[in-house]
Every structure is written in structure tokens, then in C-alpha cells.
Design brief:
Blueprint lengths: L19 H4 L5 H15 L3 H8 L25 E3 L17 E9 L2 E9 L11 E3 L6 H4 L9 E3 L2 E3 L9 E7 L10 H9 L3 E5 L6 H6 L7 H18 L8 E11 L2 H11 L3 E7 L11 E6 L7 H7 L6 E6 L19 H9 L5 H8 L9 H20 L10 H5 L5 E4 L5
Parallel strand pairs: 2-6, 7-8, 7-9, 9-10, 10-11, 11-12
Antiparallel strand pairs: 1-13, 2-3, 3-8, 4-5, 12-13
Length: about 425
């Protein structure tokens, strides 16, 4: 299970050194950035290193800091833009599926891997969903610095160590997080895919995660090796026959999903491993041409990786679908915008603490969360449906694609520019 990426001091052990119910939800980037900033102030961290790190949030070539304007990029590639108030019945996967979502963590050479899995709906009766609190996921010396009013709780839809479903094995989705991010800030998608009968494996890319970005300690790593290694680690746990993953994984049916910088890991994994049946690129693009079907999801107002750049990087793909959520930003594809809302979100918490944090890192994490963007939760039904439909079609679970058509995409509330591709 070894990878080419050495473990780092920031990578937790098999339990992350943390209660399992907490590791599930580290979407808590909003408060954690502020806490890391406290740590940097206390230890003399160098902001210039952080600046350089933020500039590397790219999937094919380095990008610069976001422009000051908020005008959406333009492009002529996708072909239809429509708006309608209510989803139609064939938006089958916008709502949760028949399973509950369980969650556990496994170890990959010293880094933690978050795993969402299909759980028995009856087995979670009476259980409380996992709830994130920032104090539980940071070192004790930093936790003591977090005041009560800036210690947000964020409930998720997952149940830690829940009894697994018994009708597996289930196909696998390998999820690679973005730059300055964390695996569990994608719970909106991970729990949803688990509810539709998939095991979602999401490793911490410690070389470019939040702690690395905030401290200026970003290093090069083999992201694809980490992503595929995390799948192998989950398969090993499944084959070992112990714990909640026992007998649960069918890795011969594999999809890769990447957000932002994670897109490169998703596409390179497809080039290395012939188990990969489809790739989903969210808010990013790769110049690498893959031989499997691709779904490209983008925000039309994304200023971190603008739409024109994404379309340019994916122009060589032949078997692809493209959905642009016209008013969405970079973080419509994760949970960050909803964490700590009552405390004013990322920018509000940082301002209240009066901490110096790299402006470009704040810009990266805030893109899509301010009032000029479509609220992230309004984009989620379309994202959830399209990703679920794409992977099910690639695996043949749906003999014919379900809801990957003009009428279904037009039925979602947000305006979506849709190009179904040559086979659509």
C-alpha cells in the first residue's frame, strides 16, 4: 500500500489521533484557517511562502491570484442555457438514495483516508449524525485558542462506524480534494454517493492540504499514487474481512472524481489504472486525454480556475459531457460555504480574530461563498445528480444514461449551460 508520497508530520494516524465521529467532517476549513493562522502568528510563520503555495492551485499549469473583477468568463463551447423552477422526475439522483451513509477512516502510510460507504438504513435508527466542532480536530495547544463563539458546529449526513449494508459489494469512487482543502469538506457529495450504493474513498493530500497551504509548507507529491493507494488500502480492509468495510468494495468498478487541483490526480489515475471507468472533473481541467468517459462540471463565475481555462484544458476530450452552473463559483463543489455561516463564514471568523492570513488563500477558500455567487447549496442537487448519473452509466448500473439530457438539466433551478457531448 506504499505510495511515492512520504508521510508528513501533519498526516494523522489510522484514527487521526481524533475521535472517529470528528474525523468524518473536517469540512471545518472556515474556522481551521483561522486557528492555523493563530499558530503561524505564534510560531513566526512566513506569509510569503503561503503566497507561493496558493499560486500553485492548478490542474495543468500554475494560476495566478484571482482577478479583482467578478464578471463571469465567457465561452461559446457549451450549447444550451436554460432555467426552470423545479426538477423533473428524471432528475432521479438529486435526492438521497436508498442507503444511509456510514463513514470510517483508514490509514495510508501515516495519512488518513476518509471513507463513506452504504449503510443499513435500519442500522442507523436512533443514531445521531456526526457533527463537526473545530476544537476536536486541531492539536490541543491550538484548540485552547478557539473561543466558544468561533467554534462552529456543522452537522453532516453521515453516521460514524454505522452498520454497513449487506447487499454489496459496491463500486468505488476515488475523490481527490482541491488545494488548501481537506477530504471531509466534500461530505455533501461523499454522503450522497454512499446513499446510492457507492464506497467513496478520499485521501488527505497532506502535501497541499489546508495545513500545508496555510503554513507555506506545500510540497510536490504523487497525487495519483496517493489516490490509487487509498483505493488499494480500502480494498485491503475489505478483503481482510474486519470492520465496517469487510466485503464491501468492488474496485473493478472504479470512478475518479477531482476538484480543482484534484482533477490532475483523477485524470492521471485513469491513465495509470485500467479499472477506472469514468472521470469527473469539478472546477478544474486537465490537458491529459483519457480513454474513458468524462464529465466536466464548472462554475461560470469561478475566478480561481476560470471557465475559459477549463474549456481549453478539456478541448481534446472526445467522450465528454460539460455542465456549467452559470452563477456558481469555485466552492460550489464542496461544503466550505456553509460551515460557520452564523459566525460570518471564513472571512467573518478571520476578521473577528484579527489575524493576518494570506489574502490569496482567503480568496481561494471564499470564491463562490459571497453574495454575488449562487449559494452553494442551490447548486448541489444538480451536482449530485449529474455525478451519480455519470458514474452509474459508466458502470452499466443504468443500461441507458438517466437524466443526462437537455430536459433534465434544464429542470434544475440554477441556470446551467449544458453540452451533452457527441453521444448526448
Amino acid at each position: 500500500m506504499a505510495t511515492d508520497v512520504p508521510p508528513t508530520d501533519d498526516a494523522p494516524d489510522a484514527t487521526g489521533g481524533r475521535p472517529r465521529y470528528v474525523v468524518v467532517l473536517v469540512g471545518g476549513l472556515i474556522a481551521l484557517v483561522a486557528v492555523v493562522a493563530l499558530f503561524l502568528v505564534a510560531t513566526g510563520g512566513d506569509d510569503d511562502d503561503g503566497d507561493d503555495a496558493v499560486a500553485t492551485d492548478t490542474t495543468a499549469a500554475p494560476t495566478t491570484a484571482p482577478p479583482e473583477t467578478t464578471a463571469p468568463p465567457t465561452t461559446a463551447a457549451p450549447v444550451t442555457t436554460t432555467t426552470a423552477p423545479e426538477p423533473e422526475p428524471n432528475a432521479a439522483y438529486a435526492e438521497s438514495g436508498p442507503y444511509a451513509a456510514g463513514v470510517t477512516t483508514i490509514d495510508l502510510d501515516g495519512r488518513f483516508v476518509e471513507v463513506w460507504y452504504p449503510a443499513d438504513p435500519d442500522g442507523v435508527a436512533g443514531l445521531e449524525p456526526a457533527v463537526f466542532q473545530i476544537r476536536d480536530v486541531v492539536p490541543p495547544e491550538l484548540a485552547a485558542l478557539v473561543p466558544d463563539e468561533l467554534n462552529p458546529s456543522y452537522p453532516t449526513d453521515a453516521f460514524a462506524e454505522a452498520p454497513p449494508a449487506t447487499d454489496g459489494p459496491f463500486p468505488v469512487v476515488a475523490l481527490s480534494h482541491g488545494f488548501g482543502a481537506w477530504p471531509t469538506m466534500y461530505q455533501f457529495l461523499g454522503t450522497h454517493l454512499a446513499s446510492w450504493g457507492m464506497v467513496v474513498v478520499a485521501p488527505d493530500h497532506a502535501e497541499r492540504d489546508l495545513l500545508a497551504a496555510a503554513s507555506g509548507n506545500v510540497t510536490e507529491g504523487d497525487d495519483a499514487g496517493v489516490l490509487l493507494g487509498s483505493v488499494d488500502a480500502a480494498v485491503a480492509a475489505s478483503e481482510a474481512g474486519a470492520g465496517v468495510l469487510a466485503g464491501l468494495l468492488d474496485a473493478e468498478r472504479l470512478a475518479t472524481v477531482g476538484h480543482s487541483a484534484g482533477v490532475r490526480a483523477a485524470t492521471e489515475s485513469a491513465g495509470r489504472d485500467d479499472r477506472v471507468d469514468t472521470v469527473v472533473m469539478m472546477a478544474g481541467g486537465s490537458t491529459e486525454v483519457v480513454a474513458v468517459p468524462v464529465l466536466v462540471l464548472a462554475g461560470g463565475r469561478d475566478e480561481v480556475i476560470p471557465l475559459d481555462a477549463i474549456l481549453e484544458r478539456t478541448a481534446g476530450l472526445t467522450d465528454r459531457r460539460i455542465a456549467v452552473i452559470d452563477e456558481a463559483g469555485h466552492n460550489a463543489f464542496n461544503d466550505i460555504c456553509l460551515i460557520g455561516q452564523e459566525q460570518g463564514g471564513l472571512l467573518g471568523i478571520t476578521e473577528q480574530l484579527g489575524l493576518p492570513v494570506d489574502e490569496r488563500l482567503l480568496g481561494l477558500l471564499a470564491d463562490g461563498c459571497t453574495e454575488e455567487f449562487l449559494p452553494a447549496q442551490e447548486a448541489w442537487p444538480a451536482i449530485r445528480h449529474l455525478v451519480t448519473a455519470q458514474v452509474r452509466a459508466a458502470w452499466g448500473v443504468d443500461p441507458e444514461p438517466v437524466g443526462l439530457d437537455d430536459a433534465t438539466v434544464a429542470s434544475f433551478g440554477p441556470a446551467i449551460t449544458w453540452d451533452p457531448g457527441p453521444t448526448g
